[in-house]
Amino acid sequence: MKKLGFLSFGHWTPSPHSQTRSASDTLLQSIDLAVEAERLGLDGAYFRVHHFARQLASPFPLLAAIGARTRKIEIGTAVIDMRYENPHYMAEDAGAADLIAGSRLQLGISRGSPEQVIDGWRHFGYRPAEGEDDAAMGRRHAQVFLELLNGKGFAQPHPRPMFPNPPGLLRLEPFSPTLRERIWWGSATNATAIWAAKLGMNLQSSTLKFDETGEPLHVQQAAQIRAFRQAWKEAGHPRTPRVSVSRSIFPLIDERDHAYFGDSANESDQFGIIDSMRAVFGRTYAAEPDLLIEQLRQDEAIAEADTLLLTIPNQLGVEYNAHVFEAILTHLAPALGWR
Fold it and tell me: For the domain that residue 150 is a member of, what is the CATH number?
């Protein structure tokens, strides 16, 4: 059994060929798609956060809206760039959204990805500390956020408060007592996966990873997952961690599928340079169901993970993406033991 969710970057563009021509289109369709995914039986609705781009940016209003419209589906991010975040404000937003959703948030956070602008986090008022680069600043913000989610009081109450306070130091409110266990770290290296395990965060590994061995993405990710789980065990955390991988998967069922993704049928992993480092980019899986099942059986990282996030072409609209979900749930999931 495997949890299946979708991952949307929330692209929009004022093009007649796009179903999402404005930010409003993307936001409202994201809510509708989560509702439809829950109806079809998917387990999760996840969203990417990018700043200064025609994509989803501020996640918590969207997560709260989906939480109010759904009842069972997990609602998450993959990932929030912590270089841009005020951990205290984020803890309040996350607590509120999680309580609205009935404790269904699964928040993926990370150092972030290549940006639309130079040092965009500076425009949000953040600067690395002395001797720190922006990646270390993002990890520092993450650690502060995790500490706040523990719910321990830290602020001295005013001697003459406007409203009565509980005894002792005060924590941020609203507080969600179990959210700390539902924080994930988006990792592109084995080292940061091990770091996340030590801090008790779940692991997200996407369709991109820094190349550490020259092997295919799924082989490197499987090794990364095993290293994460070993570090988790050595850290002695009492609960079992969760691990997700992301994949682009499109069963070729009808003419639309062939028109959109038929040319991707023979794709393979690609290697390139990102952030001055060599990286491996995962292939798109697109084929008739029988062939697709055999290809996916060979993916070592999918086999290792307990959660699979399906990256989606959100600009093709809610109806088409729902068709893809239904095709995967009907034609692939049972044969692969995911359902």
Answer: 3.20.20.30
Domain membership flag for residue 176:
no
**Measuring CA to CA, which residue among 230, 212, 203, 146 is closest to residue 180?**
146
Q: Which stretches within the chain are classed as H helix?
A: 23-40, 59-69, 87-100, 134-149, 190-198, 217-235, 255-261, 289-297, 300-304, 318-327, 333-336
pLDDT of 112 higher than 90? no
Average pLDDT, integer, range 124-152? 97
Average pLDDT of span 61-72: 98
Q: What is the pLDDT of residues 188-232, one digit of tens each?
A: 999 999 999 999 999 999 988 999 999 999 999 999 999 999 999
What's the token pair of residue 11? 């692209």
Q: Quick count: other Cβ atoms within 10 Å of Cβ 106?
A: 27
The total number of structural domains in the chain stands at 1
Domain of 64? 3-159+183-336
Asked if residue 145 is part of any domain, the answer here is: yes
How many degrees, rounded to 5, is the angle at CA 159 between CA 158 and CA 164? 75
Domain annotation covers residue 169: no
- Sign of the Cα torsion 12, 141, 208, 183 reads negative
CB neighbour list of residue 211: distance below 8 Å, 6 or more residues apart:
220, 271, 277, 278, 279, 280
HSE (side-chain half, CA atoms, 13 Å) at 229: 14
Task: Give me the pLDDT at residue 190, please.
Answer: 96
- The pair phi, psi for residue 265, each rounded to 5°, is -60, -30
Q: Residue 11 falls within a domain, yes or no?
A: yes
* Site of tokens 């720190």: 132
The predicted pLDDT at position 226 comes to: 98
